[in-house]
Design goal:
The structure is a homotrimer.
Chain A lengths: L3 H10 L6 H30 L1 H11 L2 H12 L3 H28 L5 E2 L2 H29 L7 H29 L1 H10 L12 H33 L3 H13 L1 H12 L3 H29 L10 H18 L3 E2 L1 H20 L8
Antiparallel strand pairs in A: 1-2
Chain lengths: ~350, ~350, ~350
């Protein structure tokens, strides 16, 4: 799929060859393998750096592709797309990636077990994130009912404060996962002798080189994608929210997707959950706050107020993964349940009229 | 109580003898024993057909009385009553039937245990159903805030798509319960040597005859009931939602009620849960979609948008049964908690003004 | 800290010495030790009266300080403050007190275990309470959308009915905790030979004397506090809701706070949970209904309709404590999660404009 990278460059350099829609689709497809290479290079580096620092590296660069797309979109003032892609990454990892993983593993194994305490810790942190992301909307609805009481500035201060709390909480979660309770997470990966199958023994310099090249290309593709999104949307008849929640989220998380499903089919459901739920966590507690901080840096403050359907989608997804993973075992029906809800939410976002997306 | 059947017929044939309100009450009462006979005949048939097909029969005809009332009410355009009776059946089975069962069993037994995985699977499917039934309301609230963005047609397409997802999910649930994980459900019923007490050895032809007669009479009574509901409501001062959520739901589920309580008092809490929660599931994932499909067939499309109190009631009930049954044991206090919430919701629907019921 | 009592009296008697804001702050601070003495005297008395009656005494007088503040504020017509302090006490005990306790215990002990059934019973009762307190708001939102359908009188009848249900449920909970399932709660306190550290062997008469004196002084301080709250609010720039939810709630629960943290650090997490969650329960199921009944007695009916942020805060807090305590074990990260959410809610209430607080 790396072939899409040069195709996208050609399409951009010679606009007469194609159109914006084609550029949008091709740069979307080009990001998929690049995000995979970034992820692998990050993990190889992490391997060399040892558990603690390596874990930290994974925890910060694991969703670098989403972060880059977000930064590019923010620079163009597309806050609606940025927020929708945050929502979409959270629910996509929980519902789509975990749904496929649990079904994939569940058709081979009657029940799949994993560490319950680790699963509950992640699920509770996700609950906290869902609460945090819902609060600005609660504020807006309440404050907007009273003329004079509400102002854009207060809403931004509230979002900034929440972003800080989320960021600090993420530091605590990392302390829990990498230091004080690391054995909850370590056990399973040592089971099979190796953590993940793709850890193939790259040298540090090779990892760094690939990471640098892949990151630069992802940045380039993201710029193409973001530049073409408005034109492509109107041609394809998709709303801003649908593009963010479904399209960009699926692309940005394609790498996690394939790894999580592979782990599940090898009956390593704990690792599968760790990748997918961990990615959702990272988006909510690290990528979202960093994007808020960045938006202040470039002087175009983004607040964290989401639309009602987005808030509902996140709460619903987080609650469901808690119910399903909280008992430390999964079966195929639970995967179907996650996928059904993803489908229902996808239908909702598809039918939602364009005007309804603004906060 | 079968005596109410001829009384209802007389009241209908000779309107000068009584009034609409009497007809409404009598046909309500007549449905109770008829639904019981339908249920028993279905189970007897299922017994003859063996686990797989028999389970399927129970899963489709188990709530035939509610289905018939719904079809009759839809034909008269009473979509408000139909939707309210869906809500009411879901919360009635979970809160009222399970509440009485758990208290009934709990006063005799200190703790009652049952298969946790089966209970959690049902509870999660109910959560999915609650989400699905809340989405059209989320859509409506969001879309209605933007003039021009929203249309009745989109709302109906959304509801139809959700109905299809629910229906397919129900097929998966049946596959889980009857095929891949049937032993989770089978164990307890084999404990006492017999599944349910009323399985009394009817022949296939006797079962079929009783099923046919009872079904015809339920259809007749439902028609009386639906025809008289408008007049009776205004005389009794009850709102459409209260009649649907409380009155019709209690009547339609009376048979489940007595069986579930009896099982609980024999310390077969797993069966009791299976009957009551299973009935809620069937209403949400089978009866509701089928009524939506039927409404399209007769050219009067019904959407699945419920009022805010109905959505809240379903979410609340589903969440509570998950909390209570998720640990695989119950005690009397948990029954009291379910009943308290049922009472609070009943009070809410009682005081809700008439105008507030429309979607 | 008892020195604040005479200071408050002096400030009140000689208004020229200070101002309303100082009086507000000093009487707040004076209540903290007095509430502690009331609590200790109640427990000493309970010790003498034996498990059953003693438990009942604790269950009714345990939050006497909050009750007195509430009665004083109701008499001055400050229903907004009263309701906010109910919300604040519930979330303060769950999020702040339990958060600090779990972190405090968690830094010393890797995992802390406690009786899961008892924890779940409390969490489910809290869920019920959260539902009950959300219903009047659901009613208001639904009914208010239809002109003519809604009236203040219906809203008060609804609240009164809910208060009665909560009160009766509380009686059932006491029956469960003190009679039918008392061993679930008793085990841990017998572990160390003594129930709580402060049980120091006061005589009945000493306990009664201290209880009477402390109660009278709390009543006096509450009157000062309530009298000065309006003036102090505008000077300090705090909204009514913030004062109720954060300031008064923290003061009224300071005694529970120190005891719960001490128990947690002695690895008696079950007792710690019992104190903090039990206090929330008592506020919701006993203090709130009693205040509603009292408001009728004095002819100024208070309804139980809370603002949207209050309803969200209670639901969120209750849900989180269920997730965290439902598995019968805690670790420090769970305490951080509770505190993060408390912080986020505190930020929300701080930024909420004044106009937005009315129901």
């Amino acid at each position: 799929m790396l072939v899409f990278v040069p195709v996208a460059i050609v399409l951009r350099v010679r606009p007469q060859l194609g159109n914006e829609t084609a550029l949008f689709i091709v740069s979307c497809l080009a990001i998929v393998p690049l995000a995979g290479w970034m992820g692998r290079a990050t993990e190889e580096l992490a391997e060399h750096l040892g558990h603690g620092i390596g874990g930290l590296l994974n925890a910060t660069l694991g969703n670098a592709a989403e972060l880059i797309i977000g930064v590019m979109a923010l620079s163009k003032g597309l806050t609606g797309v940025v927020k929708a892609s945050i929502t979409g990454s959270i629910i996509g990892n929980i519902l789509l990636v975990m749904g496929v993983s649990i079904v994939g593993g569940g058709v081979k194994f009657r029940e799949q077990r994993f560490n319950q305490t680790a699963a509950r810790a992640s699920a509770t942190t996700l609950t906290l994130a869902a609460i945090a992301l819902a609060i600005p909307t609660v504020f807006h609805v309440t404050a907007a009912a009273y003329s004079g009481g509400w102002s854009q500035a207060t809403e931004q201060k509230l979002s900034l404060a929440i972003a800080v709390v989320l960021f600090v909480t993420y530091a605590c979660v990392l302390g829990f996962e990498l230091i004080t309770h690391k054995q909850l997470y370590a056990n399973e990966s040592q089971d099979g002798g190796e953590a993940r199958p793709e850890a193939g023994g790259w040298s540090v310099s090779k990892s760094l080189l690939i990471l640098t090249v892949a990151t630069s290309l992802v940045a380039m593709m993201s710029e193409f994608l973001v530049g073409a999104v408005e034109a492509a949307r109107s041609v394809l008849g998709l709303t801003e929210v649908f593009v963010g929640v479904i399209v960009i989220a699926v692309i940005g998380n394609a790498a996690e997707h394939s790894t999580a499903v592979m782990m599940a089919m090898k009956n390593k459901m704990g690792l599968s959950l760790g990748i997918a739920v961990g990615s959702s966590l990272q988006i909510a507690l690290f990528v979202a706050p960093v994007l808020v901080f960045y938006s202040y840096l470039i002087g175009q403050p983004m607040h964290l107020e989401f639309t009602l359907p987005e808030v509902v989608a996140v709460i619903v997804a987080v609650h469901l993964i808690y119910q399903i993973s909280g008992d430390g075992e999964t079966n195929w029906l639970e995967g179907v349940q996650l996928l059904s809800v993803y489908l229902i939410l996808g239908i909702l976002f598809f039918y939602l009229p364009e005007g309804a997306q603004a906060g």
